[in-house]
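Dear colleagues,

For the upcoming journal club I promised to circulate an example of a predicted protein-ligand complex. I picked one with coenzyme A because it came up in last month's discussion. The inputs are reproduced below in full, followed by the predicted structure.
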Amino acid sequence: MHIRPISPGELDQFVAAGGSPEHREEVRWYLRSMFAAGSMRPEWCFVAEEVGVRPLGRVAFWALPGTGKPFALVLLDIPWDSEYMGMGTCLLEAVHDEARRLGTKEIEHVIDNPPMRPQFQYHQEKRVALLQSVGFSLKRETDRFEWPGGKPPVGADRLSFRTLEEVGEEAFVDTMKRVSEGTFDRQIREERERLGPQEAAREFFEDARRVEHDPSWWRLAYSRQDGDLVGLVMPAAPPGFLTLFYVGVVPEMRGRGYVDDLLAASTATLLDARTKDRDEKALRADTDVTNVPMAAAFERAGWARFAKRREFSVDLE
Ligand SMILES: CC(C)(COP(=O)(O)OP(=O)(O)OC[C@H]1O[C@@H](n2cnc3c(N)ncnc32)[C@H](O)[C@@H]1OP(=O)(O)O)[C@@H](O)C(=O)NCCC(=O)NCCS
């Protein structure tokens, strides 16, 4: 089995090396948009082949634009109905070596259920078995929400907002630290335990900064009545869609429905951005399956639950 990156002229071979023929146009469209966004490159698309036979397996790296380091594996497909473990292990081990060479310390791969564009991840349990066999473990499970269109939610006008530029970085990171206290989000909780609340908030902020956004979208919210800090909103525009990167309420303000006001404000920001850009990007957001208050808030605000996502990662060090 030979694993190699494709040359720019071999994109069709990469597309045809996995998945079903009727999904090829959507995979091509995804590749074109990710190349344009700087999240993927032809030399980050790998195929698995036997000499003299057309490629039968494929996987690619995905990165946040501008980082130059693979962050996730996407478009993984091999012949799931035959000896998939042998080819899959060989393919993943080879691309892990390449990711290591590019400086990646940890790489992730997500599996969405039900299978959907652009990855069409059928054979879910075989995928999980393969990932585990090369060292991946489950990091987080999320419910995925999408804005289905229609009338946006209206806030109760209880909050006033100040942008990141107005409050300064220190106050913003400090609020990220406060709203993360007692969170039901597994990943945020584990990072707080690993790094301590202050450092975890700083790292979260720096990671978020790499995702495209207008600085005026990130805002702290205060009660109109007495000016007390209530929470924050961090809408963002990752390659291909619009999202609520983070929403949170400080512990002493929880249970008063402020999340509804925050969701109304951030949904409005994203819809406004979409109108200005004149594109039809989807509005999507993920929340940990155990974060029941957050999921309930999405539903009250009119967002629709459309999938479950399992996030796996492997330590390459
Ligand atoms: C999730 C969150 C935004 C909800 O905000 P909220 O304004 O308190 O939401 P609600 O007013 O609808 O409260 C829902 C209920 O959950 C409870 N609750 C919410 N988060 C809780 C938490 N982390 N721990 C314990 N109880 C919590 C509230 O007290 C309330 O209980 P009640 O209905 O019995 O009064 C807020 O809890 C939070 O900031 N959590 C930490 C950050 C986070 O997880 N953000 C989402 C990441 S995507």
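Two points we might discuss: The longest strand covers residues 304-315. The chain has two domains: 2-135, 159-305.

See you all on Thursday,
B. R.
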